From TrEMBL:
S-adenosyl-L-methionine-dependent methyltransferase that specifically methylates the N(1) position of an adenine present in helix 65 in 25S rRNA. This is 25S rRNA adenine-N(1) methyltransferase. The keyword Membrane does not apply. HAMAP family: BMT2. One of its GO terms (cellular component) is nucleolus. Its EC number is 2.1.1.-. Belongs to the BMT2 family. InterPro entries: Bmt2/SAMTOR. S-adenosyl-L-methionine binds at residues 119, 139. Keywords: Methyltransferase, Nucleus, S-adenosyl-L-methionine, Transferase. The lineage of its organism: Eukaryota, Fungi, Dikarya, Ascomycota, Pezizomycotina. PANTHER family: 25S RRNA (ADENINE(2142)-N(1))-METHYLTRANSFERASE, S-ADENOSYLMETHIONINE SENSOR UPSTREAM OF MTORC1-RELATED.
């Protein structure tokens, strides 16, 4: 009975993340940052496997190790360090740059684009400082007063367009979801929170809502179960088309436009071996009915 509950809870982001402890204020080097993040993800994957194997003792043991390593707060500390200016800056600068044409059309008006930033770590990033973006920030463990502590998978479904957004940001969030099916569920859920409806008098024309997605490069370029082509097919099946893409040695930035309003014709995508290799990772996205 306990195992069944654990499996069900993994569908929620909060139950895929570990307990938290006080984070150290010590400055992290770039090497320490990478090691902490990688170790954290390895432990999460080991916990997922232990849950699927119904090994409750191993689950508890892994959770204890996660806690010893600092839990979610230490992971967030490492993520913040990775987004510091001396290490490349925050990813939302790419989103603001990509949306510059749309934002310039709104510059002389009072209209703003509603943005939902999932997994927000700061209230001082590029989106937050842009006066034409009205940003709602949520995270599992809020570190600032301007960030709502909330699990996106538990956020109440919108019932009106006023409760929806023109942009959603998932920057280094999807790779944190512990299961392939959970990642597919998160992407499908994003569609329900997007709207192309603008207020009367808005100077924008032909506006399409978008999803900003940032993933570690290895999730796509070094996975056994996901390729760039496969990701585009998966996203197309749930109404998203790739608009822009940028790749660095560490990250892949993508902007997806959403055109599937009012439809529910999702194609199933299971976990299939595409790129065999001992050195590859198991990152995948599964779309169920």
């Amino acid at each position: 009975m306990t195992v069944k509950k654990n499996r069900k809870r993994l569908a929620l982001l909060s139950h895929g993340r570990p307990p938290t402890v006080n984070a150290t204020s010590k400055r992290l080097s770039s090497t320490a940052t990478r090691n902490l993040i990688r170790s954290h993800h390895r432990l999460l994957k080991a916990r997922e496997k232990a849950v699927n194997d119904c090994d409750d003792d191993l689950v508890k043991s892994i959770e204890a190790r996660i806690k010893e390593n600092g839990g979610l707060e230490s992971y967030q500390l490492a993520s913040k360090a990775g987004q510091s200016l001396e290490r490349g800056g925050d990813s939302s600068r790419v989103l603001v740059d990509w949306m510059s044409s749309t934002l310039s059309q709104l510059k002389r008006s009072s209209f703003k684009l509603r943005v939902l930033e999932v997994g927000a770590l700061s209230t001082q990033n590029a989106c937050s400082r842009n006066r034409i973006m009205d940003v709602t920030k949520i995270d599992l463990h809020s570190q600032e007063s301007g960030i709502l502590q909330q699990d996106f998978m538990e956020r109440p479904m919108p019932t009106t367009d006023d409760e929806r957004f023109h942009l959603i940001s998932l920057s280094l969030v999807l790779n944190y979801v512990p299961t392939a099916a959970g990642r597919g569920d998160m992407l499908k859920r994003c569609g329900a929170f997007l709207t192309k409806t603008l207020l009367p008098g808005c100077p924008l024309s032909n506006f399409t809502p978008c999803l900003f997605l940032v993933l570690p490069t290895a999730c796509i370029n070094n996975s056994r179960y996901l390729t760039e082509k496969q990701l585009q097919e998966v996203m197309a099946s749930i109404g998203f088309n790739l608009l822009k893409s940028k790749e660095t040695s560490k990250l892949i930035y993508q902007l997806w436009e959403f055109n599937n309003h009012g439809q529910n014709n999702h194609k199933r995508y299971s976990k299939a071996l595409l790129n065999p290799g001992a050195a590859r990772n198991n990152f995948a996205v599964v779309i169920n009915d």
